[in-house]
Amino acid sequence: MVDYSLSPSEQELYVRAMEFARKEIVPRAIELDIANEIPIDICQKAYKAGFMNLHIPKEAGGPGKSLFEETLIYEAIGYGDAGTATSINVNNLAFAPLVIGATIEQLQKYVQPLVTGEKVKFGAFCLTERDAGSDASATKTTAVKEGDEWVLNGTKCWSTNAPVADLFTVFAQTEPGSGYKGMAVFMVPKDAGVEIGHIENKIGQKASQQSEVFLKNVYVPEDCLVGEVGKGFHIAMMTLDKTRTGIASIATGVCQRAVDEATKFALKRVQFGKPIFNNQGISFMLADMAARAQNARLSTRYAAWLADHGEKSSFDSAIAKLVASDWAMQNTTDAIQIFGGYGYAVEYGIGTMFRGAKLLQIYEGTNQVQRIVIANELKKKVKTLDTGFKLNYAGVDAPDHTS
Ligand SMILES: Cc1cc2nc3c(=O)[nH]c(=O)nc-3n(C[C@H](O)[C@H](O)[C@H](O)COP(=O)(O)OP(=O)(O)OC[C@H]3O[C@@H](n4cnc5c(N)ncnc54)[C@H](O)[C@@H]3O)c2cc1C
After folding, report:
1. Which is the closest atom of ligand 1 to the Cα of 162?
2. Where in the chain are the domains?
3. Which tens digits make up the pLDDT trace of 223-249?
4. Which is the closest atom of ligand 1 to the Cα of 372?
5. Does the CB atom of residue 134 touch ligand 1 within 6 A?
6. Residue 394: pLDDT band by 50, 70, 90 thresholds?
7. 377 to 32, 243, 380: CA distances (angstroms)
8. Distance CA 16, CA 1 (A)
9. Closest-CA residue to 329 (of 363, 356, 365, 364)
10. How far is residue 300's CA from residue 325's CA, in Å, rounded to a whole number?
11. Burial class (CB within 10 angstroms; exposed 0-12, middle 13-18, buried 19+) of 194
12. Active site residues
């Protein structure tokens, strides 16, 4: 029988993460949005609470959590603030290619020291370049083998947490001109000579930072290569398949917070002698928002569950990321409408959520890219599907209308 309930340990994790978000993040979300800094103190507490580095296996000092458990934690952290969630979540993204492609010995040598110390440490995921955004295969950063070392050259951009990172997961081209076929992925310690450039000035999610990353003749030992040369693009795609449910979870949290804040407000705000909630035009909006939050949650948990059970989850994780982030945008837009003028005021915090939600539709694959993934998978699924219906096009299998 299908069981949609959480196990006692999952329920405990969800409640603990929600309490963390309500206590540590919600009261500071507006201040963090204004400060434009990574809230290292909150990250430190999240690290100590076991909410970071989730997928590092226990043999390498990590918590070894499943993607399903991640959905519970990051829905809660996203409920608190999407920007803070991005800062806390990005280690999962930075380390995912290493969990997928590195050996346990490599993880123990390069990642374990970052996930077992007293102080929180950060990784950065460096795929995007100025001319390689949605088209990651256009990567120009190069990696050339010199003796028993690799030498990297190039500039990455939009790297979340790069300004505070100790380890950079860098996608580079080993055979310029060969597109995705020559890509490889490397672990690059900061002290190998990585330089940080301009920090982006964003319109939202200001509790996270993104910057350029300069690699100028950066030498790393042979064992910094993750997996094989030529497998970098594949590892990047496998990574994004896995990490999309993390973004979908943050989006679910944003969806739910918008419902909760807008419902509370609508019940309190009196106009024309009654709470605005009592107008069907408002309560129906809230009902639609609640339906979106619920479906974002179900879609996200389902995609994570599939991946945890070893099923191919590209289709479902892309759907989860697409709908949850589109609905986070819709719910925060509607929340502003329900708050009226107060929704437009900084102090009420709905604007923080609204601007934060927008990024969820852009990073880790824009929602257009999610649609490309879904459409490609759809094409494969339908090719082998016999619906029983005879299609009347191109003269093939046309129904017989003569009788
Ligand atoms: C705040 C923030 C944090 C980020 N963090 C990281 C990070 O940690 N590491 C990292 O490597 N990158 C990161 N990124 C980069 C992010 O993943 C890219 O911005 C994203 O993949 C889109 O690339 P682009 O911005 O170059 O847009 P482009 O690829 O230039 O796209 C521009 C527009 O065209 C659309 N488009 C492009 N190609 C197609 C197509 N074939 N069909 C239909 N539409 C298309 C896109 O959907 C988009 O709407 C971050 C970005 C931001 C803004």
Report:
1. 8
2. 233-383
3. 999 999 999 999 999 999 999 999 999
4. 42
5. yes
6. low
7. 39, 18, 5
8. 28
9. 356
10. 11
11. buried
12. 364
